[in-house]
Automatic annotation (TrEMBL):
UniProt cross-references to InterPro entries, sorted A to Z: GK/Ca_channel_bsu, Guanylate_kin-like_dom, Guanylate_kinase, Guanylate_kinase_CS, P-loop_NTPase
Gene Ontology CC terms, in alphabetical order: cytosol
Key words, A-Z: ATP-binding, Cytoplasm, Kinase, Nucleotide-binding, Transferase
Binding site for ATP: A18, P19, S20, G21, T22, G23, K24, S25
Name the UniProt record assigns to this protein: Guanylate kinase
Subcellular location: Cytoplasm
Entry GO MF terms: ATP binding; GMP kinase activity
Protein's organism: Pseudodesulfovibrio mercurii
HAMAP family linked: Guanylate_kinase
Length: 213
């Protein structure tokens, strides 16, 4: 008899946060390449479409009044105001993916992660750490895209974000990229094995004893 784990598994919410310059985008891209079935929830925003952006593809573009009404009735698992526009992730589509057994990956800032923690408290929350302040400065300068003023602001923000790392479930230090990826991957795979995401699996296996009793 072959055991089909997919019949008994709920999806996992995987939340990854990091200060700018830590290498989060690279690590997430590596994870998505190896595991391309991650679910993706299209966010809502009150800003206007840019260029070739289409409603329902890049974002759900809604009016400020619609967004506020949705927020008031608790439709968002996380939301934020950025440069005068609202952005938010609707809870229902995420829950639907999870119930289908599809994992959902969030690449998000610390404040958004804290909101997600309230809704998806059984999720896996990972904070990526730079090995040192000096190394973070080197990486930010090495990108060649930030002014000295911008780098100083990012370092100040990084200090505030690091102060909140303590409530995350896992810490991964991105000193060596390959090692950091191995650790992130291990955390993700371990999270898939949480008993809370495998309802009924033990009862089903125990039933095989009764059937052969």
């Amino acid at each position: 008899m072959t055991f089909d784990d997919h019949k008994f598994r709920l999806g996992q919410v995987l939340v990854v946060c990091a200060p700018s310059g830590t290498g989060k985008s690279t690590l997430i891209a590596m994870l998505r390449e190896e595991y391309p079935d991650f679910g993706f929830s299209i966010s809502y925003t009150t800003r206007a479409p840019r260029g070739v952006e289409q409603d329902g593809r890049e974002y759900h573009f809604v009016s400020r009044e619609t967004f506020v009404a949705m927020r008031s009735r608790g439709a968002f698992c996380e939301w934020a105001e950025v440069h005068g526009n609202f952005y938010g992730t609707a809870t229902k589509p995420v829950e639907e993916m999870l119930h289908r057994g599809q994992d959902v990956l969030f690449d998000i800032d610390v404040q958004g992660a804290k909101q997600l923690k309230k809704t998806f408290y059984k999720g896996t929350f990972v904070f990526l750490l730079p090995p040192s302040r000096e190394e973070l400065v080197r990486r930010l300068k090495g990108r060649g895209t930030d002014s000295e003023e911008s780098i100083a602001k990012r370092l100040t923000n990084a200090s505030g974000e690091l102060a909140q790392a303590e409530w995350f479930d896992y810490w991964v230090v991105n000193d060596d990229l390959a090692e950091a990826y191995d650790e992130l991957k291990a955390v993700y795979l371990a999270g898939r094995c949480k008993p809370s995401l495998r309802p009924g699996i033990l009862d089903n296996i125990m039933q095989t004893w009764k059937n052969n009793g």
